Amino acid sequence: MEKNNKPTVYIKDQLGRELPMKQAPRRIVSLVPSITELLSYFELDDQIVGITKFCVLPDHIYRSKPRIGGTKQVHYNQIDLLNPDLIIANKEENTAEIVEKLAEKYPVYVSDILNTEDALTMIEDLGLICNRKTKAETLVREIRTSFDEIRALHKLNRTFKAAYLVWHNPIMVAGCNTYINSILNLLHLENAFHNESRYPKIDTTEISAQDIDVLILPSEPFPFKEKHKQYYKELFPDIKVILLKGEIFSWYGSYMLNIKTAYLSIQNTLNN
How far is residue 159's CA from residue 139's CA, in Å, rounded to a whole number? Predict the structure, then answer.
């Protein structure tokens, strides 16, 4: 195991901000659910001192670590009591106000994940910062290998046209310049709304007009359930509707190792 007290390198976050720290952190607050899981994967459980109420994985971290609020509203006084030497945030998950206020007191690494390459860079960055370089490089290599395996498998399958819903009433979908869109592309699903803004509001007529093969209803951020699946199946009897774990499409980090399994499941559903 890599020791955690070894000095690390200076590094910039994904907004180009240099972190004012000279050694690996001993007290980390994570404001990003998927990165909390990544830190645990890096065997940094003892260094995680604070998480959000949405950091539900891994379960033992969720149950044992102090929760300092949500991703959009944090309790600054609780963070002060935890006295972190690193806070990890995300441009989309957390607000600029939160980052700016916390950065007045603490080093804050802000990730900005628009595609899978951004996610892999973030993994390598945190590996350097937290003195887990070898483990990070191994994880990135395993993820890239799984991506290559997906590409090889897809030679036997056709590409389906998909709409990925992120909200219901109003209906909102994932558009361009999003991590979700990059995962759809990786899974060889053509995003019907790839020419739209990041998360556009649409109506049912726009779905009907797109010649879509499949509607994907994720478990987050809107908690789509079986009743929503039945609703859309009745609206669009010629379109397949599937419920999937939202983490597959929106959690970057160690959870990316699950993407190949999701590909196999989706193709099995669409080809039967």
Answer: 28
